[in-house]
Amino acid sequence: MPLVELHVLEGYNPEEKQKLGTALTNAVRFVVPAAPELVTVLIHDIPADNYYRGGEQRIPAPARADPVEIVKDYLTAMEDRDLEKARAMLGGGFTMTFPGTAPMHSLEELIEWSKPRYKFVTKTYEGFDAMQGSGAAAIVYCRGTLQGEYHDRRRFGGIRFIDRFEITDGKITKQEVWNDMAEVKTNA
Amino acid sequence: MPLVELHVLEGYNPEEKQKLGTALTNAVRFVVPAAPELVTVLIHDIPADNYYRGGEQRIPAPARADPVEIVKDYLTAMEDRDLEKARAMLGGGFTMTFPGTAPMHSLEELIEWSKPRYKFVTKTYEGFDAMQGSGAAAIVYCRGTLQGEYHDRRRFGGIRFIDRFEITDGKITKQEVWNDMAEVKTNA
Amino acid sequence: MPLVELHVLEGYNPEEKQKLGTALTNAVRFVVPAAPELVTVLIHDIPADNYYRGGEQRIPAPARADPVEIVKDYLTAMEDRDLEKARAMLGGGFTMTFPGTAPMHSLEELIEWSKPRYKFVTKTYEGFDAMQGSGAAAIVYCRGTLQGEYHDRRRFGGIRFIDRFEITDGKITKQEVWNDMAEVKTNA
Amino acid sequence: MPLVELHVLEGYNPEEKQKLGTALTNAVRFVVPAAPELVTVLIHDIPADNYYRGGEQRIPAPARADPVEIVKDYLTAMEDRDLEKARAMLGGGFTMTFPGTAPMHSLEELIEWSKPRYKFVTKTYEGFDAMQGSGAAAIVYCRGTLQGEYHDRRRFGGIRFIDRFEITDGKITKQEVWNDMAEVKTNA
Amino acid sequence: MPLVELHVLEGYNPEEKQKLGTALTNAVRFVVPAAPELVTVLIHDIPADNYYRGGEQRIPAPARADPVEIVKDYLTAMEDRDLEKARAMLGGGFTMTFPGTAPMHSLEELIEWSKPRYKFVTKTYEGFDAMQGSGAAAIVYCRGTLQGEYHDRRRFGGIRFIDRFEITDGKITKQEVWNDMAEVKTNA
Amino acid sequence: MPLVELHVLEGYNPEEKQKLGTALTNAVRFVVPAAPELVTVLIHDIPADNYYRGGEQRIPAPARADPVEIVKDYLTAMEDRDLEKARAMLGGGFTMTFPGTAPMHSLEELIEWSKPRYKFVTKTYEGFDAMQGSGAAAIVYCRGTLQGEYHDRRRFGGIRFIDRFEITDGKITKQEVWNDMAEVKTNA
After folding, report:
1. What is the pLDDT of residue B76?
2. How far apart are CA B88 and CA B66, in angstroms?
3. Which residue in A81, A94, C125, F131 is a FRET match for C15, CA 20 to 30 A apart?
4. So where does this one cross the membrane (chains A, B, C, D, E, F) (predicted)?
């Protein structure tokens, strides 16, 4: 106790069920202070033949792509400057906000903005937090440290950053970025 | 469909059940791309007399305090410089990291750090994201903008920030802060 | 076995639950040839606080008026020539078809049609069959015998009839009538 | 919501489950005015190994033959004057009542009765209504129009009819017929 | 896991539910080697209005009297030589078998049999084991030691005994007794 | 009604499920005086992929060996004087008590004790009663009659006995024996 029973149309794979098991367990624990090992989740797979809504059978929808994986793929594509791949991952109405910028709407704007700031930058990840919001978007946080090289060939590293993403229907629709780059430069 | 049934010991109030309803709905939607209005949550309250684990009755635990409310109360106490109240909300092993700082362990360190930076600062909230992590801690994100006054009486405002909190057993055990203050100062 | 569990929002009264118990039992028996005493129905009343669809509470709808009672009230009003009461029970697009008539749309047409046929007529009921159709309408059959008086003062009786009604949102939208009146007259 | 869960012994085929899905949905809607697309039916197939009554396994009974199909087959056999086939479909204690007749007990009586009335008759179906009654019998209504030829070679058509059948253990045990034939003849 | 859900008609009291909780937990553990604290029992009380078998409501039966209590009361009455009370607790067809006796049918026979053996005897209980058999009878084992006095005024004590009882419909229908009295006497 | 639903990890075979069906039925009947054929048990096999405790999958434990079979095998081994086999069935802390003995700890002690008493003895079984106790041990009662041969070549038979066993983790940890042997000898 507490016990969660989930009835879903048959068709989700073990990895997707594990994600459901984890998400439902944590959803309960958000309110009920039960030790995790006392929270049980049972999934009941319902064959399509055995489920009727309004007297009609329904087709199970394939599981959502994991929003954390989407974010990781996008960040890798950006580090690799594979703009074509990254662009294909953006949804309609995409905006991104970086320290000191107004919302930008294309990756080209970002490239322009970053050009004077550093020659290149890569990310070391410390952790991801992900959740479905009450609206359409899933929210993914990614935090860690930046390292790279300024145009004067000085190296930098260990600069804290955090990104917040919104993913809607498998596409990134919003990216917000905070980091300590200016702080570090100021104090350098 | 999908349908979630939650069996819990009787004793949660309507507000707590609403939070369970929302959290369980979003947990399912994190994996299953169902329209929200097709995700159903049923809560079955089980009287203590009707629940046995190992053949023994169990006492329901009171619901966790809402971690978002804990964070809001803490941030208000800090804005009000009510250090006593804020300190009472911190858990063992508390650390906080601000732009350019190493992890600090007491509010006094923070006050020292901030003294040369600004006379005062207040927060305008844009949004909160909260979730139970797989470990003991709940995670709360708070984002928005800062406004306040520097020591030279200049006012500032609209500076983006984001805070990440970990709350364990109702106490804040970790605070991490990112903001654009240095970026803004640099460009000022 | 078979076992039916019905989860509904709390608020239905014992009489309405008995009707659900009967209707669900017979729905199963329509396909599964179980002895009635082996068909079990459990109703789980879900308090509004314990039910969420799309993360939101929902208000239970009051039970439908019993369509058989609607039909009985209407037939009584017609026997009593209480046209005002009967007319108030008709829904939009109402049609009625009697032996040898095209579909009529008002009670006045019926009165005109029946005038030359008999002075008055009353009904003795033998049985009602009622069911929800797959569309919006509930269907009620009423059968029995007619008795009354012709204009030449001859009495008649024992004439078989059957009426088929459609009831939509508590209003009668269709009435179809068959009976042996012409047959009896022909043979008289 | 409402949600119906049906637990039955494994062994029903998709078509039989669809009939259960429809019948249970309509049983709920007979009392609860929910939009059809909000009525959910889940069927849980229970393997024989997983079901015990009185501590003993039970054998699932094959589904009932569809009573509407039984009625259609019977009516076709009668139109074809295939009395042998039709007779095989009748159950013990069978009675049939036609306009102006007392209850008849054999198809031969019906043939005798109809001989002077018409040379042949066929049916055009407008609709069927079927339900399990609370007793042993399923009830099937069939309505539509008759066409055929009188002995004087005049054709007739468009004559409204309705039949009510009772089907017990897969056999027809009662047939009642109403139609406008006399009405039409009288007015012809 | 394992999880047992019991649906019963409302009306059992907390003590009776505790007995159900214990009995169901042990029933599962008889086959499944789960640690007791991982066996969960949920009892769902079903109000009479919410339960239909064959479309009809059913009245909950009062819980059985605890067969262990029945046995204790009977043994106390026998120790007190309250034969009237003890006799009232016996069911039809009662038999009792003591060491070296054929089945006896009345308490008087037992008194006769015991007269030459000892002046009086009392029991010290070590433990009871009780279970419902697959037939009508519950089975209760009672074991411990006997003490008392022989006719020659010698005291005895610590003599092992075990009784097996069958209780049907709240009445004792069978008693079988084994003990070491003869063994002890032989060796004395 | 009553209805028991058992959710267990998939993997138990039909024989083990039958034992669960019987044990759960009798557990309910121990308290609720329902006719056996009205007690229903449904077993829901949960695939390992569909069960999470603390967000983690769990491995189903193999069913316990049937404690009645263990007792039968042990008693057969003892009759056959196959001490090696019998000894392998004993658990740590094993004790056994026979009429007039203090608790013994090894089969050798028993052999010594029985030597002067009879040349050999075999058992005819009348019945077994078995149940899981609330502690770790399952309890098995075995009763019937003894037959065999004394050292003076006299045969004996029909001597009532009862054994009580405790079985923990598949091993016999306690055996207690009562019988009428001394009674019979005394009276012989």
Report:
1. 95
2. 17
3. C125
4. none
Residues of D in contact with F39 (CB under 8 A): 53-55
In angstroms, the separation between the Cα of residue E75 and the nearest Cα of chain B is 28
**Options 3.30.70.240, 2.60.120.10, 3.30.429.10, 3.30.70.2200; CATH of D3-57:** 3.30.429.10
**Rg of chain B (C-alpha set):** 21
What is the DSSP code (8-state) at residue A170?
T
**Omega before C99 within 30 of 0, i.e. cis:** no
Give contacts of A3 with chain E, Cβ < 8 Å: 3, 40, 42
Alpha-helical (H) ranges within chain E are 14-29, 67-79, 83-88, 107-114, 181-187
In the sheet that C3-9 helps form, which strands lie side by side, from edge to edge? A51-53, D40-46, D3-9, C3-9, C40-46, E51-53
Distance (Å) of CA D140 to CA C179, D70, D165: 18, 10, 5
Residue F120, classified by CB atoms within 10 Å of its CB into exposed (0-12), middle (13-18) or buried (19+), is: exposed
Please give the Cα distance from D165 to F185 (Å, whole number): 79
User: What is the three-class DSSP state of B68?
Assistant: helix
Question: Under the phi-then-psi rule, with left for phi > 0, alpha for psi from -120 to 50, and beta for the rest, what region is D100?
Answer: left
Q: Which residues 6+ apart lie within 8 Å of C169 measured at CB?
A: C91, C136, D33
CATH tag for D67-187 (out of 1.10.3720.10, 3.10.450.50, 3.30.565.10, 3.40.50.1820): 3.10.450.50
Q: What is the pTM of this model?
A: 0.93
Residue C42: closest C-alpha in chain F: F1
Please tell me the predicted confidence (pLDDT) of residue A100.
Answer: 87
Q: Could you tell me the mean pLDDT of each successive run of 10 residues in chain E, 188 residues long?
A: 94 96 96 92 96 91 94 96 96 95 93 90 96 95 96 94 97 97 80
Alpha carbons B96 and D165: distance in angstroms, whole number:
80
CB contact under 8 A, D50 and F42: yes
Q: What is the mean pLDDT of chain F?
A: 94
Q: How confident is the model at residue A188 (pLDDT cuts 50, 70, 90)?
A: low
User: Band of the pLDDT at D137, cuts 50, 70, 90?
Assistant: very high
The whole-angstrom distance between residue D159's C-alpha and the CA centroid of its chain comes to 21
Decide if B22 touches E, using CB distance below 8 A. Answer: no
Q: What is the pLDDT of residue A60?
A: 83
Q: Can you list the pairs that A126-131 forms with residues at least 24 positions away whose Cβ atoms lie under 8 Å?
A: A128/A68, A128/A71, A128/A72, A129/B129, A129/B131, A129/B133, A129/B139, A129/B141, A129/B164, A130/A67, A130/A68, A130/B30, A131/B26, A131/B30, A131/B129, A131/B131
pLDDT tens per residue across span B66-94: 999 999 999 999 999 899 999 999 999 99
pLDDT at position E187: 67
Tokens (6 digits) for E124: 């010290």
Decide if A3 and E3 are in contact by the 8 Å CB cutoff: yes
Tell me the per-residue pLDDT of C1-27, one tens digit each, with 9 for 90 and over.
799 999 999 999 999 999 999 999 999
pLDDT for B130 beyond 90? yes
What ipTM was estimated for this complex? Answer: 0.94
Q: Do B97 and A160 lie within an 8 Å CB cutoff?
A: yes
- Where do the structural domains in chain C lie, given as residue ranges? 3-57, 67-187
Confidence check: pLDDT of C146 > 90: yes
